Amino acid sequence: MERRGFIKNTGLLAGGIMVQNKVVQAFSINKQILNVGVIGCGDRGKGLISVMDGLSDFYNVIAICDVLDFRIKETIAKNKREFILYTDYRKLLENNKIDAVIISVTLSDHFEIAKAALLAGKHIYLEKTMTYNIPQALELSNLKLKHPHQILQIGHQYRYVPLYFKVKDMIEKGYLGKVTQIDCRWDRNSTWRRPITDKSLEKAVNWRMYKEYSGGLVAELLSHQIDFINWAFDTHPDEILATGGIDYYKDGRETYDNVQVMLRYNKEGIVGNFGSTLANAHDGYLFKIKGTKGMVSLLMNEGIYYPEKKQEKELKTIDGVTGATKIEWNKEGGIKIDADNSKDGTWYALKDFYDCIIYKKEPTSNIKTGSNTAFCVHLANQSMYNHKIEYWKDYF
Amino acid sequence: MIKFLNIDSKKLSIILSLVVLLLIFFSFKTEKDFQRFEIEGNAQGTTYKIIYYAKDAKILKSQVDCILLEIDSSMSIYKEYSLINKFNNNAKGVLMDTHFKKVIEKSTVIAKKTNGDFDITVYPLINLWGFGLQKDKFLPDSMMIKSTLLNVGFKYLQIKSDSLIKKNPQVKIDLNGIAQGYSVDLIASFLQKNKVNNFVVELGGELRINGKKENNKKFMIGIEGVKDQDFLPITKYIEIEKGAVTTSGNYRKFYKSEGKIISHLINPHTGYSVNNELISVTVYAKNAITADGFDNAFMVMGLKKALKFIEQNKSIQAYFIFKDKKGNIKDTCSLGFPNIKSIKN
Q1: I want to staple A272 with a disulfide (CB 3.0 to 4.6 A). Which of A53, A182, A276, B10 is the partner?
Q2: Out of A175, A319, A324, whose CB is closest to B205?
Q3: Distance of alpha carbon B198 from alpha carbon B241, whole angstroms
Q4: What pLDDT shows up at residue A337?
C-alpha cells in the first residue's frame, strides 16, 4: 500500500472536508479505492468493468485500452461514462494514477503485457490462461519473484465462488473418499466465431480460431476445470494425452472444434477426462469428481453431492431434523451442496483481488497455480497437435 | 417340575418344539408388525414428514392433510377466511373453535410464565418490521414503534368461555410461533388414537417423537448447526424416546437494512428486533406446543436469562448456539438436555 500511488486519505479526513464525490464518501468508511486500467475491451474486458463498477467502494476504472477503435466505443457506450483512452498499453502503464491493471487481451499477448505491467509496478489481474506457452510461464514466474509486493492474480474466476471452496473442503475432509476419476465437459453448439464487418479484422477479432494467438478450447474453456483440480488436490498431472480435430466448423479455423484431454495424476492416482465440442450443447458444463464414498457434480454455481450407497445409508439414519432446513434428497439420490451463490465468480475474484492488494495476501489463483494450468494447457495442445503423450517436467 | 406336572420327556420335547415354533412365528410376526412408513407433504408454508412403524399403512396422507388444513382455516394469517384473520380484522373478538382455544390458552400460560417474552400480540410489530403480510422493508422510526407498542400485550386479550375478547380494539395476534408445535401434537395424538405408538412427526423443523424404530433403536434427531464449513447442515444429533424438539433462530429469516440485521424475532417489550448473543435455541419438552412457545421466549430472553428460567422449570430443556463477545460461534445446553452426539462422517 504505502509503496506506491494509492490515494492518501489522511489529509482529507483530518481536514474534515466534505466534498460530495465518490472518493471522499469511500474515505468516510475508511476504504481505499483503487484506480484501475483495463487493457483489452473485448466481451471479457467489458464484463470485468461492469463488475468493478458494481464494486465502486473498491475500484474506479479510470482508463481503458484497446487496439480496436470499435471496442473502445462499445465500452464507452456500455458504461455511459468517460475513461482515459489508450490504444497502446505501454502508455496506460505509464499513468501513475493507475494502481492495478486488468489484462484481458488475446492469449498470445498475455505474457508481454503482464511483464510490462509488473515492471511498471502495477498490481495485475491477468485473464486466464496465464500465458500462451511454457517458456513464458517460467519467465513470468521468475520475474514475479523479483516483484514480491505486487499482486498477480490469474482470472480463473469460476473457482472463486464459495461452492468451489466448499467442494475443495469436502475433498480435503474425505467426503468423497478416494477420488479416482474426474469427468469434465464444456460443450456448446455454436461456431465460437464473432461476426466481422471488415475482413482485415478477422484475426484481431477471431483470434481464438488461430493457433498463433490462442490455445483453443483447452485454453479458453477447459483450463478452468483443469485449474480447479490442480488447486483442489494441490497437484499437477504427470502425463497428458490429448486428441481432437476440426470436425464440424471447416471454415478455415486452425484451433480444433472438438477436443478430448486425458490427464494422469500419478501421486493421487486419478485419471481426469476433459472434453469440449462446439457441435453439441446437451451436456453444456459438466464437472464430476468421483470418489469411493461419493461423487460431486458441479455446475458453475450449483453442486450436488451423491453419496455412494453405503454412505447414503449412514446419512439417512437421521429420522428428523429440528431447525429451518433438513437434508433434502433429490430424485436421483443427491444432496444439494449449500453455498452462497448470490454472486458470480468474477465478483468474488475481483473482491478477493482487492483484499489481496490491501491486506497483502497471496491470491488463491496465483502465479504458481496459474503456471501449472498454463503448463497443462500447453502440453495438452502439444499432445493434440503432435499426436504424442506429453510428460510433466521437473523444471516446471 | 416335570414330575409335578406329570409330563414325560417325549411330551416335553413336543411342547418345547411347539414353544420354539410359536416363538419363531411370533418373532416373524413382530418384525412384520413393525414396518417403517413415511408420509411427506406440504403445509403451513413448509414441509412435513411423518415416520411411523406399524403392521400396515394405517395412516393416510389425506387424513394428515385434512388435519393440517383444519388448523390453517383456524390459525393461518395467510388464509383470508381464517378465524385468526376474523379476529384481527374486527374490534371485539371471535368465538373460538377447539384448536384456536387450545392454542390461545397455552399462549396465555406461556406469556404469563415468561413475563411476556413470548407474546402473540406482537403481530403489529412484526408487520411494522416487514415480516408479516405487509412486505415493505423500511425501517420504522422510534415514534412508530412506540405507538405500535401501545397495542401490544397479552393483557389486552380476555378468554371468556369460548370467546376471545379484545380489551383493546387495535390488538392483533400472530400464532406462527406456536401453531406449528400444536399441529405436530395434533398429528401425534391422531397417530396414537390409531394405535401407532412409534413415530416421528416433523413439520417445519418442529418435531414430536414417541417410541422406537427397528431393532429397538431410538430415533435420531439432527440439530441444525449454523452454516459452517461442512456441506451437510447436520453435524449433531440427539436420541429421544418421548417428547418434542423445536428450534427458533434468527439465522434464516432476516434482512439487512442500513447495515443492521433485522431478524423476524421481535422483542414484544421493546418493539425492536431481537439482538442478543443467541443465534438459535433448540427446546426439548414433553409436547411440541410447549417447546414451540418457549423457543421464541428464550430467543428474546438471551442466554443467561433463559438458562436461569430453565433452572426453575426443569420440564423444559434447551440447547443454545450463540456468539461470544469475540464473535466466535459457540454452543451450550441446560443440564437436562438430551446427550448431544456428533455424526461421524
Answers
A1: A182
A2: A324
A3: 9
A4: 83
